[in-house]
Amino acid sequence: MNQGLQVTFLGTGTSQGIPIIGSTHPVCLSTDPKDKRLRVSVLISWEGYNYIIDCGPDFRQQLLANPISKLDGILFTHEHSDHTAGLDDIRPFFFRQGDIPIYADERVIASLRRRFDYIFADEDRYPGAPAVQIHQIDKNTELDLHGLAVIPIEAFHNRLPVLGFRFKDFAYLTDVKRVEAPEIKKLKGLQVLVVNALREEQHYSHFNLEEAIAFAKQVGAKTTYFTHISHLLGFHKEVEAKLPEGIHLAYDNLKITI
Fold it and tell me: Are 40 and 13 in contact (CB under 8 A)?
């Protein structure tokens, strides 16, 4: 590779986003753009290729703010709606390119088939419906994306297995509560780690801030960014100022090069 990875945080919020509809919480009322968070998604680009990890209900809005001319594929962490509900918004890319490659485990593909049956239909396709090219993967499936090795990382979202992904020296994990030791080994030597940090209080299926900081230190990446953030974590500016060296809050439309 002649150039580094370009990473764009399309969304950094939890399932309801920030602001939450109808909420009068001070963070939801904040005028700081960094306190406004769409549902989590990230764009990874290199040498003219563009891959998305997760496409939630804000997907169209996110790509209008961060336009790309083509989409080479979508990798799914898991099947929850805040990570998948925007799948229909691949239409403009499908009309220009044809079937869009997607990468997910067997359970996630089955869920997408049920919820977006018209996209996955083999016969009697509805005219104008987008279509996908399915790549079933698991934690042991190393991907070759145009010569770039991408390594899935298994984690647990409460009891639900989810996948994170390592692209060279960058890794992205979200909706994580637990990662087993063999999977943590896959994360050694990173330059940049992205992982969820929901709030300060404990949560049954997400790292809270304390757990996320401990995990970041265990992995030992040079820089860590937290994502999948709720309004209960607090104001971006105030939380960022209290984080340990080398750890930051991501925010929508943040761009980094690795």
Answer: yes
